[in-house]
């Protein structure tokens, strides 16, 4: 069961949790990309189309990735790029050859996937979504001179046995998947700057409902409304302490830290 924490405590909780992983000067953790029930639209601005996606750590004892750490997909066929052209025609292709992946912040809880609009146009598309399939695993892009790189054995173990435990612990948890998918919807539509007051709340909600993931139904939007309302009801957004964007990011990251700790417990127990 997911336990919800007051937004004013989320930043402290996440910062304390970061002390768990890693030591200096080594390749960062292999990451699992959380399987999604429906595609996530990429939001286009300034020549780039991008969105944030949920991830989690597969290797507790490796370094946590810094913000903007580049990653790559180990199994390309499970990450799909769904393209829509000007006439509404839809086709699907492998995402890996066309996208860039990096950590969204100093954490293993989220990555940003981006594609240039120029690349999108070359593919004959006006807009795109990403569908994360079963057991997608991300490896950090190798860095020359790394004194402790991810080996072939490390990568193989991560994308097989460790990823299987992660899938059974987190990806198959309907409550976690549904809630963080709703939070990702919010993160990908809310502006990073703060806005306060009843009019601002209504305007922000209008922007949120304009981006509807394909196949998302009433249950998804119930979760989106619940998470959005929780940030305003706590009053930290209303009084201008943090933005609604930051609030939902912190709620997302705390949930994923809780799920990751359960995964680490299962790995230690030999699940």
Describe this structure in words.
- Mean pLDDT is 84; it is low at 1-24.
- The protein has seven helices and eleven strands.
- It has helices spanning 7-17, 117-122, 152-171, 174-187, 198-209, 218-233, 244-268, and strands at 31-33, 40-41, 43-45, 48-57, 70-73, 79-84, 90-94, 100-103, 110-116, 127-132, 136-140.
- Strand 6 (79-84) and strand 7 form a beta hairpin.
- Helix 6 packs across helix 7 (244-268).
What's this, in brief?
The chain has 271 residues and is α+β, with helices and mostly antiparallel strands. The protein has one domain. It is 38% helix and 20% strand.
Q: What characterizes the major β-sheet?
A: 6 strands, antiparallel, barrel
Number of domains: 1
Percent of residues in helices comes to: 25-40%
Mean pLDDT score = 84
Give the DSSP E fraction (strand runs of 2 or more residues).
15-25%
Largest sheet, spatial ordering of strands: 1-4-9-8-5-11
Oligomer: single chain
Which parts are unreliable, with pLDDT below 50 for 5 consecutive residues or more? 1-24
Q: Distance between the terminal alpha carbons, to the nearest Å?
A: 19 Å
**Element pattern in H and E:** HEEEEEEEEEHEEHHHHH
Instruction: Count helical runs.
Output: 7
Number of strands: 11
Q: What is the global morphology?
A: globular
């Amino acid at each position: 069961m997911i336990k919800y924490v007051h937004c004013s405590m989320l930043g402290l909780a996440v910062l304390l949790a970061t002390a768990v992983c890693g030591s200096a000067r080594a390749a960062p953790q292999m990451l699992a990309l959380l399987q999604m029930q429906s595609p996530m639209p990429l939001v286009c601005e300034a020549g780039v189309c991008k969105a944030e996606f949920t991830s989690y750590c597969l290797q507790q004892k490796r370094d946590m990735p810094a913000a903007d750490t580049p990653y790559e997909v180990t199994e390309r066929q499970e990450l799909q790029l769904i393209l829509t052209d000007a006439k509404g025609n839809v086709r699907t292709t492998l995402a890996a050859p066309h996208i860039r992946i990096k950590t969204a912040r100093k954490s293993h809880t989220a990555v940003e996937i981006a594609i240039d609009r120029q690349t999108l146009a070359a593919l004959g598309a006006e807009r795109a979504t990403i569908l994360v399939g079963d057991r997608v695993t991300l490896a950090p892009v190798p860095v020359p001179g790394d004194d402790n790189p991810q080996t072939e054995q490390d990568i193989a173990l991560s994308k097989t046995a460790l990823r299987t435990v992660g899938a059974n612990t987190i990806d198959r948890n309907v409550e976690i998947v549904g809630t963080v998918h709703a939070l990702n919807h919010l993160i990908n539509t809310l502006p990073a700057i703060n806005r306060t007051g009843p009019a601002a709340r209504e305007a922000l909600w209008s922007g949120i409902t304009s981006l509807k993931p394909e196949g998302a139904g009433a249950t998804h939007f119930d979760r989106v409304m619940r998470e959005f309302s929780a940030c305003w009801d706590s009053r930290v957004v209303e009084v201008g302490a943090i933005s609604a964007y930051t609030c939902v990011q912190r709620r997302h990251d705390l949930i994923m830290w809780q799920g990751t700790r359960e995964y680490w417990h299962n790995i230690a127990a030999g699940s």
